[in-house]
What does this fold into?
Amino acid sequence: MKGIHLRVYTYENSRHEGKPLYEWLLHKAMESGIPGGSVFRALAGFGRHGTLREERFFELAGTEPVLVEFVAPRAQIEAFLDLLRQQDVQVFYAMIEAEFGIVSAGSESPR
It folds into this structure.
């Protein structure tokens, strides 16, 4: 299948509706019918504000960057981004064209 690889960048301590934002994003994606999502915590990173955030210092615990990823058909990803806009979620994201599928016994390779 062809679709979109959506990457959403946030911080571990970011919250929305009383939940960690990454958790909120996963739940809303599930409710939207997106077939799967994953969250990855970074060791370090910086964003548009130029602040370097690292896991090294105890006093900065929870400020590390977090990446939330989804792969789904374009229409589902666009509907999900519309939902984020409606909910006033402010995050940086990247959309990457993707080809995806499931590898199993007897499945054919994409050509």
Q: What stands out?
A: The mean pLDDT is 88. Strands lie at 2-11, 15-16, 19-20, 37-41, 44-46, 52-54, 65-72, 92-99.
